[in-house]
Amino acid sequence: xxxSPFGKEGQKMSGLRKDFLWGGATAANQCxxxxxxxxxxxxxxxxxxxxxxRKAIMKGEMHYKDLPEDAYYPSHExxxxxxNYKEDIALFAEMGFKCYRFxxxxxxxxxxxxxxxxxxxGLKFYEDFIDELLKYNIEPxxxxxxxxxxxxLVEEYGSWRSRQVIDAYVxxxxxxxxxxxxKVKYWMTFNEINMLMHLPFMGAGIMFEEGxxxxxxxxxxxxxxxxxxxxxxxxxxxxxxxxxxxxxLAAGDYYPYSCxxxxxxxxxxxxxxxxxxxxxxxxxEYPNYAKKFLEHNNIxxxxxxxxxxxxxxxxxxxxxxxxxxxxxxxxxxxxxxPKLGNAxxxxxxxxxxxxxxxxxxxxxxxxxxxxxxxxxxxxxxxxVENGLGAVDTLKEDGTVDDDYRIxxxxxxxxxxxxxxxxxxxxxxxxxxxxxxxxVSASTGEMKKRYGFIYVDKDNxxxxxxxxxxxxxxxxxxxxxxxxxx
Length: 485
Prior knowledge:
Protein name: 6-phospho-beta-glucosidase
GO molecular function: 6-phospho-beta-glucosidase activity
Strand content: 5-15%
Pfam families: Glyco_hydro_1
EC number: 3.2.1.86
Organism: Cellulosilyticum lentocellum (strain ATCC 49066 / DSM 5427 / NCIMB 11756 / RHM5)
Helix content: 25-40%
CATH topology: TIM Barrel
């Protein structure tokens, strides 16, 4: 095992830790493929198509059974890491990765989610995968549930609407904590748990029915996920006290559009909407602002007798988060120019450039967000997603000149280091998103590339999946060698 950043050898008064966890991040639903191989069952991502219906499905506003027969599902093959993981891990090792953040496909281990015993073939695949990482001294960092749960749990229980899914999740966690005990130490319970409020089906398998009170459904599902997360944290610590369990949110501070107090208060409200989940996971109880919100909106959360105790006694060890951009909000809906971007709606920031997909580029915003999170929770942070989605051109000689990606990452790494050196933020590691090209979660595209490694595949699924090293591959290798200096 790689030495832990927790403990004496990890303490450093300035600069990044000597054992800082440099690496990269992916998710099974975006890179693994093999969607029915090895006894795997259908997962939610397997019914999210590329194209015009994608957003409606992700929002839970359209049923996947109403999709046309010729719909294309990019997750079914993705980049076939299922069949190519040894080659890919060797490339990560060549870059010098200290860790690799990835996820398990829940339905590969419990095909319907209802089984009492796991699928051995699925467990064996991940055991071989983890052993390959450890062979190169790469620390596995596992996301237990990354926008991906067995479709049967959606169809029979309504996904996280039901407490029965809590039981299924804990059964899944017990299987993986026991099987990989001593091999995996770093766990995250849910990826971007706050995405439930923005893309409910993609984030948590929630589909809305006619007459639903959407907020009631979302917050009940959120409560059930939070209880499941706390139970998983307890189980991980009971099985091995050395296990470190983190929560994970889609982060990025909201800026007020102006210094009008109304805009400042609107930004505070938007931040709270996102921090709600992490407040509970890190502090162990519902914050007062959340209680008042539920009361004002007449939302009644069904709680088990032990839920409050479970939440209070099983808080997380570290705060993991994704950061791509900051956001802007105004109390006046007629003010400002709406911007493109990801699932978080907002106003265009006139002071910032933006990517080809309208994501505003704000390196200082990363430092601001890190300070906000560390001041709020005072637990170690872990940047587990950060990166630039862009159109790359593969040249005839098999190279990709992605200087724009290098510039983006260099600026964000500089801001990250300043948050540690100048502000005293405790940071465990940094895993840029999509270290190898994969299917975009938001758009289902391949042309929206993030990786240091180019994969030959296009939006329609054409290509031979051959891997090529980009210019950023060699740049990031040097960054890791010099611990960011």
